[in-house]
């Protein structure tokens, strides 16, 4: 439907290639490309800092960072007082305490769960992929007492941030790979950082798994969380036409109904009830900014040496 809309209404043909959000603005040559589409707005500043020339930029889709896990782990975290259920939504109001437990090398058995090893989270590589990069920024803020970490604060907390990510072991190169592995193998013994829209999109694309997923997966909303805002960076007039096409209200409504991407576009109503899925809030009301682009660049540089 999207391909039909963009062709019929906007006369566009797309030739797309895949790269990690950090990778595309920091490492890849933009020559010959009309637009790049990373998954956070910090990437825009990183692109500018690299000397990238931006013709136009606009955020077209959003998805909050969430944590996926199995109901057994969710129940253990509820018993620990870290997660609170409000209606059918599960909120992690004490993410800083969870991070501290990981720092203290608490085990799954400490939570009453019969799993091997220490409590941990799975995240994508923060030096290459957006969800891992955003989570690293959120970790930096929480280690800074819940205040947005500036460059000076980041320097103070780099040793503990480095130690935290060093405990996570091998990290996947993309957010999609982390989520796919979680769905395929690790629902019962994982805390996985991802985007809200990933599970929505999976269920809508595979309705035969809806009941199985709802019985197996708990979506946890950290408070605060961070937005994964998806800015299209147009490098020329052709790229700007893509931004115009993605502002089409029908395309944005399609992005919500079929893929779970939230949009702030006026006139596009987005209710969790539209998707027929439980456990999704209508609004995300506890969001904090990431550290600035220079602080995030410093963070990536430090973590790239792990």
What does this structure look like?
It is a single chain. This protein has 306 residues and is of the alpha+beta class. The protein has 14 helices and seven strands. The chain has helices at 2-10, 21-26, 42-49, 71-79, 95-103, 130-143, 151-166, 175-185, 196-205, 210-216, 237-246, 249-259, 272-275, 293-303; strands spanning 35-36, 56-70, 83-86, 89-92, 191-195, 217-222, 227-234. Strands 1, 2, 3, 4, 5, 6 and 7 form a seven-stranded mixed beta sheet that branches. Helix 3 crosses helix 14 (293-303), helix 6 crosses helix 7 and helix 7 (151-166) runs parallel beside helix 14. The radius of gyration is 19 Å and the shape is globular. 39% of the residues are buried.
Provide a brief overview of the structure.
With 306 residues, this protein is of the alpha+beta class. Helix content is 44%, strand content 14%. Strands 1, 2, 3, 4, 5, 6 and 7 form a seven-stranded mixed beta sheet that branches.
